[in-house]
């Protein structure tokens, strides 16, 4: 799989190609023999021409430049953008047809200020020009990814991980990306969609025309002929770039060139630059900037970036974009972020294209990572693992429930013996309430917790291998997705996701019924004969029960005994040992009944617990994944 990064800029454009599995940096795709070309488009002999070929001097018609900055305001600009993209694609297909056939994704940059709707429209436009599977990402994000991965910058990774500000000043916009600990912040992508180096091209040309002896004629030609205007702006741009590539040399002696403009007459236009001219231009009010000067707009943008990052100032500031070579811009950035390491991309005209290619790989891995984590967390794999091992929980759960019931039975009998409970019927009701409360208590929860945690740890160990393999495929450190020690609430406190929730109220009531039936058989069987018919009190109760049986029958006798108030002194003759022995004889039966109820498919416990745990673990895995994603994104 190959990924194409297409930096369609307002002044220059470049294309980079990245093999998704390669460790080699994206390579620049030459167009017209260059790593980057002028963003110019025209027609010649019925075909689209781009770059230097789109010039009136080369015979091109309808030459257009700076269409990217006009994209949002000029209805003709989208057509110019599409034509330029078609021309670039034609060159790529002509030069590298086999490689282009392997491209599975194209990533195109846009200003940070563009919304999602505008990005979708732009992607559709690029696809209509022939680029496959287009995704649009902010250019400042691409700049950060390039800075993060580029070996040529040699920035200390620790500085990049702590805090960084990436400033991308292109021909039409200035974009910022603010990163802390590898994480893009809430307001991480911002900028000025009107502030770009292309404005200077226009201002240089305007100033030179104003000072020309042929001013009026030149202004008319530039107004009537977009092709000649484009040519003159490109020449102004070339002069500006030449000036800032060796500013120390040209600021005193100046730099000039003569243009011959042939429209309906031959006119001469001198383009000239020196330090004084540059200073005048960057401090003059500009209508496109709302009356602000270039310097004012630049300082306001830098001030806003400083405000966004004030809580954790960037340790490194990375400058990219063709206009980042301007000395006054570098000095302003240095002053705005005093104490930060200032880094200039060695090939700013290529860095965005390379960063876009990296963004394509990052987003593809991110998509794979999210989908597979969701598949593991929410899919059949987790359910099958839970279903295959859930039987390990039945016996521990049953044992804890029986222990709780036994303890509450002894406490309730003690209360009855002291006279705190009047009848066997009331004893049975109080016992049921206490057992239900006990099973939902913190004490029982604490007993279940280590059992459930041990079971969960074994489950997570079985899943660890799959997650480790996924992490390695997607460039995520495996320890970021380690599930060992995952906490799963026992839920006996009625939390949202719990064992009790998995049981469901119907099943919980049923299990209490199982426990009560077994306890009742030991304590309250025969209307209380099981409890009262043993020990020294047994003879008296037995005699009464016999008389009642003769007169009332079995059911009447049992109801009479259940509602009979046995004297407190007589209750004291019921021995704790006798009660404990009776409960212990029932223990095995109670545990088997609970296990059978838990395992019964019709009870739905297994399915509900699978769903409950899958939800709990799935939520935790996805939360971990969101944090781990930054390893991919950064």
Structural overview:
The relative contact order is 0.09. With 634 residues, this protein is α/β, with parallel strands linked by helices. Helix 14 packs across helix 23 and helix 18 packs antiparallel against helix 22. Strands 1, 2, 3, 4, 8 and 9 form a 6-stranded mixed β-sheet that branches. A hairpin with a 2-residue loop joins strand 5 and strand 6. 59% of the residues lie in helices and 15% in strands. The protein is elongated and about 130 Å long. The protein starts with a strand and ends with a helix. The chain has 2 domains: 272 residues, Nucleotidyltransferase, domain 5, CATH 3.30.420; 199 residues, no CATH class.
Descriptive key words:
Nucleotidyltransferase, domain 5; alpha/beta; 634 residues; single chain
Entry summary:
By secondary structure, the chain is an alpha/beta fold.
Please describe the biggest sheet, giving its number of strands, its sense, and whether it closes into a barrel.
6 strands, mixed
Averaging pLDDT over every residue, what do you get? 79
CATH architectural group of the largest domain: 2-Layer Sandwich
What's the gyration radius in Å? 40 Å
Unreliable runs: 487-498, 525-529, 537-554
**Helix fraction?**
55-70%
Write the layout of secondary structure elements.
Blueprint: E1 2-8, E2 12-19, E3 27-28, E4 36-38, E5 40-44, E6 47-50, E7 61-65, H1 77-95, H2 97-101, E8 103-110, H3 116-128, E9 134-138, H4 139-149, H5 157-162, E10 163-169, E11 174-180, E12 183-192, H6 198-211, H7 215-224, H8 226-245, H9 247-253, E13 255-262, E14 266-273, H10 275-283, H11 294-308, E15 316-320, H12 327-336, E16 341-344, H13 348-378, H14 380-389, H15 391-417, H16 424-439, H17 442-474, H18 499-523, H19 525-532, H20 538-562, H21 568-571, H22 576-599, H23 605-633
Parallel strand pairs: 1-8, 8-9, 10-15, 15-16
Antiparallel strand pairs: 1-2, 2-3, 2-4, 5-6, 5-7, 10-11, 11-12, 13-14
Helix pairs in contact: 4-13, 6-8, 7-8, 8-9, 11-12, 13-14, 13-17, 13-23, 14-17, 14-23, 15-16, 15-17, 15-18, 15-22, 18-19, 18-22, 18-23, 19-20
